[in-house]
Structures are given as structure tokens and as C-alpha cells.
């Protein structure tokens, strides 16, 4: 949803609520909003300012920060804060500022204090609840529309990627059967070559069949990365200087399929990987509620880029759909050194 449209729609909705409220005052209480005795318009303006403050804080902060992240206790506490905000702001505007101007109280102060506090508290609760319910419903609607549009674009991109993959596959069953035959023929005479063929077969099988779903097991993704790096090591032999460090326990965590390989591929394709004085590193830290990937490499400035892979922008869009705000993606390029940082919160 475009920000300007969202702002416009909120303005229209707030205006409608304001007009309906004024109409209700006129019909039910027979009040003239432009009456100067008492100055009803001034008090109504102060009331609207307090109400809009609650609406805005709940819409922009409380719902995205607490409700969307399922922090229901914190959201309940924030509602109490909204009651205090509405009541305090309204009291300041009506009983301090406007009283100083008009000499008129909005509430009758000749009643017992307990009755005054009760009336003021019930009013604050009612109007705060109304503002929070409306702003929450509207925020949920806009985020639902936004996520639905993102998912639609992601599905289109996913289908295009699948179509591209299908076009590039020439009878995958035939390919795997051929590789298996090579493996069996070379197993006795050239076990090392046979082992390479087996790894290649597993790598291709993973890409072809096991990544059709949006998510996959972290353990499979790590095995895929290790096999990917293995072939680079075979190519460069002792001149391959990319280290892979994995810290933490791998259990049944699931992550977006072929997500981590994007960063590893960037290191191997666009970085310097054959200079012992300028090694590259890939670090994967697995914690109870999060996964952190950090890559560091020197940039190969002489390389001609022929393929861009999935693309950082598509990676970001995919993460936004799957994780909303529960991820961090950062890139830095300084002094010909490139660093990538990804944190996923489960």
C-alpha cells in the first residue's frame, strides 16, 4: 500500500468519524457546535486533538510494535497507557488551557471528587477504546492488503523461477541416472572421483526437487553449502581460502530454501577466494531463537559479472513477506572489502 494513499484513507476515515460524532451531538444532545455559550466548538476541538493523538500512537506504534509481533500483554499495557494519554491530554486542554481562556469547566466540579474521577475515567476508557479499535482495525486491513500484494508478487517471481528452472532441465531423471551409473563404474577404480560425482548428484537433486517449498530444514541447507564449497575447493585445490565456521546446535530449525546460498555464492563468484593474504570467511551462528550469517571478502574488481543470481532485492522482498520485521539484512562496502550480515529471528 502506497504511504500517501494510506495517509489519505486514514484522513477520510477520521473525518467521517468526526462528522458522525458531531452529528450525534447535534441530534441526541441538540447542541449547536458553533455555539459560543458555552464555547462548545473549542471543547470539541480539544477533545478531537486528544482522540487523534491516541489514534495515531496506537496506529503507528502500538499495533506494529506489539500486536503484530504477538506481544499481547505489552499491547494490553499500552492500552492502559492510551487511557492515561487521552485523559491527561484532555484534562490539560479542557480544564487548564480552555478554562484559562473561557473560565468554563467541561465537568462540574461541584460534585464529589470520587464521582468526578469516575465520570472522567469512564469517559476516557470509552473514547480510548473506540479510537484504538478503529485504528487497529484499519491498520490490520492495510497490512493485510500490503502482505497480500507482496505474496502475490512473490508467487509470480517464484513461478517464473520455477519455469526458468524447468526450461533449463533436460530430463533430470536421465541426468541423475547417468550420474549414478558413473558413480558405480568409478567406485572401485577411482573412489575419489566417484565421491565427487555422488556429491554433485546430491547437490543437483537438492536444487531440483527439495527446494520447491518456501522453507527447508537448516541442516539440509548447511549440507548444500558445504557441498557447494567442496567443489570450489576441488577446483582451486590448496589455493582456495574461504573458511566456513558454524557455531551452535542444528536441530529441526527451518529457514527459507536457497536463502543462505545467495550470500555464499556472492563470496565465491564476486570475491577473492584464492589469495592466502586476503581470505574470505563465512560464519553461521545458530542460537535458540535466531540465526546469524556473516560473510566477509575482498572484492574481485577484475571479474566480469555474467550472472546476478537471485538478487539482493528479491532476497529482501522474500524476507519481508516471510519474516515481516523479524530480520536484519545489511551490506557494507568499504576499502574494497564487502561484508554481508543476515539475522533471522524464529
Q: How do the strands and helices of this protein lay out in sequence?
A:
Blueprint: H1 3-28, H2 40-67, H3 72-102, H4 113-168, H5 172-186, H6 191-209, E1 215-217, H7 218-236, E2 242-247, E3 254-256, H8 260-270, E4 280-286, E5 290-298, H9 312-323, E6 327-334, E7 337-345
Parallel strand pairs: 2-4
Antiparallel strand pairs: 1-3, 4-5, 5-7, 6-7
Provide structural commentary:
The chain is of the alpha+beta class. It has three domains: 3-156, no CATH class; 171-209, no CATH class; 215-345, Histidine kinase-like ATPase, C-terminal domain (Heat Shock Protein 90). Helices cover 63% and strands 13% of the residues. It contains nine helices and seven strands. It has a five-stranded mixed sheet, covered by helices on one side. Strands 1-3 form a two-stranded antiparallel ribbon. The chain starts with a helix and ends with a strand.
Overall tally of structural domains: 3
Order of helices and strands: HHHHHHEHEEHEEHEE
**Major sheet, described briefly?**
5 strands, mixed
* Rg, nearest Å: 31 Å
Average per-residue pLDDT, rounded, comes to 76
Widest sheet: strand order?
Answer: 2-4-5-7-6
What labels describe this entry?
single chain; 346 residues; alpha+beta; Heat Shock Protein 90; 3 domains; five-stranded mixed β-sheet; two-stranded antiparallel ribbon; 63% helix; 13% strand; elongated
Concise account of the structure shown:
With 346 residues, the chain is α+β, with helices and mostly antiparallel strands. It is 63% helix and 13% strand. The chain is elongated and about 105 Å long.
